[in-house]
Automatic annotation (TrEMBL):
Residues 64-444 form the AMP-dependent synthetase/ligase domain. GO terms for cellular component: intracellular organelle lumen. Residues 3-56 form the Acetyl-coenzyme A synthetase N-terminal domain. CDD domains: PrpE. SUPFAM superfamilies: Acetyl-CoA synthetase-like. The lineage of its organism: Bacteria, Pseudomonadati, Pseudomonadota, Gammaproteobacteria, Alteromonadales. Belongs to the ATP-dependent AMP-binding enzyme family. This is Propionyl-CoA synthetase.
Amino acid sequence: MSYKTQYSHSKTNPMEYWQEKSKLIDWYQAPNNILSQDKDDFYHWYADGSLNTSYLALDLHVNEGRGDQIALIYDSPVTNTKEQYTYSELKILVAKFADVLASQGVTKGDRVLIYMPMIPQAAIAMLATARLGAIHSVVFGGFAPHELAVRIDDATPKVVVTASCGVEIEKVIPYKPMIDKAFEDANYKPDTCIVFQRDVLNADLIPQRDVDWQTAMATAEEHAPVPVLGTDPLYILYTSGTTGKPKGVVRENGGHAVAMKYSMDVIYGMKPGDVFWAASDVGWVVGHSYIVYGPLISGCTTILYEGKPIKTPDAGTFWRVCEEYKVNALFSAPTAFRAICKEDPNGAEISKYDLSALKRLYLAGERLDPATYHWLKDITHLPVIDHWWQTETGWAIAGIPVGIEMLEPKEGAAGVAIPGFQVEILDHDGNAVKQGESGYIAIKLPLPPGCLPTIWNNPERFKTGYLTSFPGYYVTGDGGFIDKDDYLFIMGRTDDVINVAGHRLSTGEMEEVISNHKDVAECAVIGIKCELKGQVPLALIVLKNGVDETSHIHNNLKELIREQIGAIASLKEVLTVDRLPKTRSGKILRKVMRQMVDGEEVQVPSTIDDMSILDELKVGFGSLIS
Ligand code: COA
Ligand code: AMP
């Protein structure tokens, strides 16, 4: 069946389409109620189906005779470690860790917060939580204690799972002090913290509260999977919005399992036994979907890589991993390949490795710029596929559906809408624009299985943030257009979210931190172009009257952002200005400033309060202007 036929089937009869696709997974009890709506009118898939995600990812493969196949490869150039786990081995470890969690009182519906570096125990903790029908919330290791505390207060986890440290390129980052600080700062106090002690650094445990992972595992039994309903949450993953408070994206078991299996086949063309590598982090949605759940539910071998694209030890490291494990598909962010290209522009490193197993490269997380697209295509001679998605959807909204039809990727486009996603481009009033014209990218409801049904603890925020601007649609927060061949072009966010090295960050959150500084009268944070990271934040501050020494304030602010949000925010530039450009009603014109710094055509709204400020700013921006 062609892509067009499948897409149109999913559009005209979503219920029938996704009933058929529900058969892709092995339910304990197959669902009859395919699509339902709750009291808030939010959609849910497979409400009365019964399943267990950890069973689908592990036990099923063992039962079907794939127990000896490698399920997970751990490759850590930063610690010189390589490990491989078969499906049977991984199942036993997960079942035992589920028992450890159960012995700490974790049962179905409880939350478990996981703050781990890229080690197999992170995946084991996720799968063990799922095995109990509990709900995990993984927090990226680069976030600071304050961010952890905010998530602890929102998710109210019974248990926190962590490791003694993370290892970055040249430094060991102790995790335990950050966890202790977060426990101190949070209003809600989890009962227990389970700590995996790494050889590089041991952590001090707090008696009564902390449990040593290795000791607990030594006496654990194997815990059986607990059946859950299709609509029971599997996880909460926090992501940045326009305000300081992160949003807890909820993922339900049933729709997620179907979407994972479907997307591994349709979007990535992967079959059981294939080797899939998502070079990301378990703390991000890409890690959830395509390091852990997607490949394992599909019976593939997944790779968990603890390293960087460069410097661990060199720009050939991605290609080394691809050769060593015969990777069939590699997925990473454009920023990773820009870093490789910068160090190895002529592909000297890549020519050292045998990449004959590699069929395709996938990119997402930010726009794939044409230069990187061409460079990658030229040095690998492989299809380079850009695909577009969000934490909220959990899988790609647009891409190349290679499992249905190998459509030709187009430079600058993120592919075509994947069956299930009714993508439309709307104008300010919610009317569809003409093909080829730009506007707000919206998805007609219902979203397909696997996408968020709501925001944890905050259905109102789900409504106001996504559903009320254009009734009947989910608003993605991205702008773009669809060309005459139905390819989607993503042109950037329409809100105050920025993308730094493929990491989604909120400028609003940074502004909240900065405006709390005693010397700052007001501020604005904008995302400006960066050759390597795509975007980096630039903070503009106006000081209170009488404050004139600025360099120490700039350093204080950079430190504050590190402390409150984390080093990944990469706030490297702070600029003091006399005033900020505003509309007559007092709204700060962030877009105007971004356009000025990025050297784009500046669209000055007619409502600007005072035009002369633009000349002042131009002088102030100086060499920052690209
Ligand atoms: N734990 C603790 N700290 C972390 C961290 C983690 N898991 N990840 C990053 N950091 C820290 C870094 O050590 C760095 O700190 P520093 O300012 O003290 O040096 C800071 O956060 C910024 O890190 P990063 O964004 O990684 O920038 P970089 O300049 O060190 O490296 C790249 C640049 C391009 C190599 C890197 O950003 C990269 O690999 N990007 C790909 C990201 C990716 O795969 N995203 C995928 C989403 S699909
Ligand atoms: P996250 O939720 O962290 O995955 O970030 C999602 C956001 O990243 C999207 O809303 C886009 O702004 C951006 N994004 C992700 N993939 C792409 C892509 N292929 N092209 C352009 N932007 C992308």
